[in-house]
Specification:
Layout: H1 2-10, E1 22-26, E2 31-36, H2 46-61, E3 67-75, H3 94-107, E4 112-121, H4 122-134, E5 139-142, E6 147-152, E7 157-159, E8 162-171, E9 191-200, H5 203-223, H6 228-245, E10 251-262, H7 265-281, E11 285-288, H8 293-299, E12 312-315, H9 316-319, E13 336-340, E14 347-350
Antiparallel strand pairs: 1-6, 2-4, 2-5, 3-4, 3-9, 6-7, 7-8, 8-10, 8-11, 9-10, 10-12, 13-14
Helix pairs in contact: 2-4, 5-6
Length: 365
């Protein structure tokens, strides 16, 4: 009996094996990806802001299935240099020099570009595009597939673009947040992807859920009547339950993820501190997806699944503040270079002869 006992004692009960790089996920082509244009929400007039928010609210309230929104920040890949600019030798070369200068501005690290995509089941894509058209947002359905290849470690995911680290939003900034607050989580100069997943909840389920929460909070308050957080939470929950029961609002399960990608480990650590500092500045709490960086990375990919399920219940009024457009980005193909975007540093290219945009324009020369 001694020999088998010794063999069992010497055998490893748990083995830790490093997994090599491999294809970790392929996109679900049953989901539609709608690439959208930009909206100058930040500097718009109050009437335009209200009109866009109302249209976005109607889109959110009309959801019958899950919706994913992906906001990508792409900085310029080249370092800014002090090399002297080349001047055109002849008048015919001025157009080429103008476009070359705009190209250099676009690729400088002082420039970055926001892009927003909406992902939903194919049967709901037509409804989304109609709302986007009502908001005057350009949209372009994308059918390109996507695969994720790489290796996962405890605090990052190694992929073709470098090293990626993902956080999930543990605590929102508060009750009084302005539309566009998500963009304050995106420091300039970093390659970032922010994604939120929203799934509508049945009214009967959420009303019963809030009733159970209210019973629990009232019982807790009877034991501790001096808790200020509880004193404010109970009236808010009662008001939300009333609005949901009367169909004035709609409830959703919402999860928010943020992925940072850097070329080296040193850059990743330095840039991570910038992201966390930006979150602290707006009283938002981020938690890293430690040991589950692959799942976090996938949650920020278009058509990516939300395997972590770091969800919270949010009503329509709060979800409207997740408005996914903020700064304008006017770069018309073949346009004239007229300057740089003050917010993003990107070149501004305007084609004054574009009849689709400027049907009533009159050129003088």
């Amino acid at each position: 009996m001694a020999a088998p006992t010794t063999a069992i004692a010497q055998a490893a009960l748990i083995r830790i094996v490093r997994r090599g790089p491999a294809t970790r996920w392929s996109a679900d082509l049953g989901l539609a990806v709608i690439d959208t244009g930009s909206i100058g929400f930040a500097g718009a007039a109050e009437d335009d802001r209200r009109r866009w928010l109302n249209s976005f609210r109607r889109m959110v309230d009309g959801l019958d299935g899950p919706l994913q929104v992906v906001i990508t920040v792409t900085p310029g890949p080249d370092e800014q240099t002090d090399a002297p600019a080349s001047f055109p030798a002849t008048l015919d070369d001025m157009r080429g020099a103008d476009l070359a200068f705009a190209h250099d501005v676009r690729r400088s690290t002082a420039s970055h570009r926001f892009s927003t995509a909406l992902i939903a089941p194919e049967k709901h894509a037509l409804r989304l595009t109609s709302v986007l058209a009502e908001m005057s947002v350009e949209c372009d359905p994308s059918h390109a597939g996507d695969e994720v290849f790489g290796a996962q470690v405890a605090n990052s995911f190694q992929n073709h673009a470098g090293l990626s680290r993902t956080w999930y939003v543990e605590r929102l900034p508060g009750t009084d947040v302005e539309p566009g607050w998500l963009f304050r989580l995106l420091p300039s100069g970093l390659k970032l992807t922010l994604s939120w997943h929203a799934t509508p909840l049945p009214a009967s389920w959420i009303v019963n859920y809030l009733q159970r929460q209210l019973i629990s909070m009232r019982a807790t308050r009877m034991q501790d009547s001096n808790d200020p957080a509880l004193a404010g939470a109970i009236p808010n929950a009662e008001d939300l339950q009333r609005r949901l029961a009367s169909s004035q609002d709609k409830a959703f399960h919402v999860a928010v993820y943020l992925t940072l990608t850097s070329p080296t480990q040193t850059d990743l650590e330095r840039d991570s501190r910038k992201v966390e500092a930006a979150a602290r500045a707006i009283l938002c709490e981020l938690q890293p997806c430690t040991f589950r960086m692959l799942e976090g990375y996938l949650a920020t990919r278009p058509r990516g699944p939300d395997r972590l399920q770091r969800r919270r219940v949010i009503d329509s009024s709060a979800l409207v503040t997740f408005f996914p457009w903020h700064e304008p980005d006017l770069q018309q193909a073949g346009g004239l270079f007229v300057g740089r975007n003050a917010a993003t540093g990107s070149p501004v290219l305007v084609d004054p002869f574009d009849q689709r945009r400027y049907a009533n324009a009159k050129g003088l020369g």
